[in-house]
Amino acid sequence: MQDETRRETFLIPGYQDRTVKEMVRHAIWRVIAPLPDRPYLAIKYRVIKGVWPSFRNPRTFSEKVQARKLYDRNPLYGMLVDKAGVKAYVDAKLGPGYAIPQFWVGTDLGTVDWSRVELPVVVKPTHASAQGRFLYGRGDIDRLVADNPVPHWLTLDHSGFNREWAYSQVKPQVVIEAMLQVEGGIPWDYRFHTFGGEVSHVEINMRIGDRGYACHYSPDWQKLPLWDPDYLPRYPGEVARPKRLDEMLMVARTLGADLDFVRVDLYASDDWVRVGELTLYPGGGFEHFDPPEYDRIIGDRWTLGFSLPS
Question: Is residue 138 part of a domain?
């Protein structure tokens, strides 16, 4: 039986490791935390990316994510980033069967009727990333209830850490939803970067054995040289074209049709496609691109749907 720490790492590969560099950066973030959004984001961007961002004339994808955080106040965004609330949006756009089934949403684990929860499940906050538990059996439930991370999860302020405005519109809660499995394991994460309903590329996060990898493909399934050296190692091999790729592209295009940009995160087997979540601010707009020109190449696909300051 895997221990709880291992389970959390499987849930969100790449986020749990803390290097000395990351610890130093987090110390800097604490120092600059009192600053208003604009100077906070400028300094954070400079520390991570090595250059100052342009907020008034953003050109790269990373700069446009920062501009969205500062200036885009689409009232729909609160629903889109809510890991429970987005399911209604998915149902409205696609019909039933694409949202991951959920068993409970709330703030007090004491109100959960565990007899109605079909294991295995994922337990995670609706308003934050990089947190969660996998529950496979009764022992996992008992440990969750005994540890009760929910009060801590409810204090997390995703909107404050990276100044991602949409998360300030989400009521902090916890969701218990079905755990998807493919051949007895956690399915790979297919992330469709979608601009006005057109998919530019697909990021694939996978786990093979005990190791996580990432790679990127074009919509017609040609492997791209794109890679984020700060995230998972680059997968050296080829990934077979998913059996349901055409359906996955339809789902991504449909969910992204009314948005200037959204990353549609999907899971799939040979028999089904499910929507994991919709992401408005990938990596907070601080991801590295290798080759670096891809930051501009992808940024050129994004025609902003909001106004910038003059």
Answer: no
Query: What is the domain extent for residue 197?
Result: 4-101+158-163+184-299
Summarize pLDDT for 218-231 with one digit per residue, the tens. Answer: 999 999 999 999 99
Q: Which of 14-28, 221-235, 267-281 has the lowest mean pLDDT?
A: 14-28
**Percent over 90 (pLDDT), the chain:** 86
User: What integer is the mean pLDDT of 247-254?
Assistant: 98
φ/ψ of residue 217, rounded to 5: -135, 155
Cα 91 from Cα 88, distance rounded (Å) = 5
Confirm whether 24 is domain-assigned. yes
Overall pTM surpassing 0.90 (yes/no): yes
Say which residue the tokens 């990432």 belong to: 214
Around Cβ 18, how many Cβ atoms within 10 Å?
10
Q: What are phi and psi of 89, to 5 degrees?
A: -65, -45
Q: Which residue in the block uniquely carries the two structure tokens 């755990």?
A: 179
d(CA 63, CA 179): 35
Task: Look at the chain and report how many structural domains it folds into.
Answer: 1
Residue 191 lies in a domain: yes
**Residue whose structure tokens are 């007090």:** 108
pLDDT level of residue 192 (50, 70, 90 thresholds): very high
Average pLDDT over all residues of the chain: 93
Query: Which H, E and C letters describe 93-159, residue by residue?
Result: HHCCCCECCEEEEECCHHHCCHHHCCCCEEEEECCCCCCCEEECCHHHHHHHHHHCCHHHHHHCCHH
Tell me if 262 is assigned to some domain.
yes
| Beta bridge partners of residue 212, listed in sequence order | 207
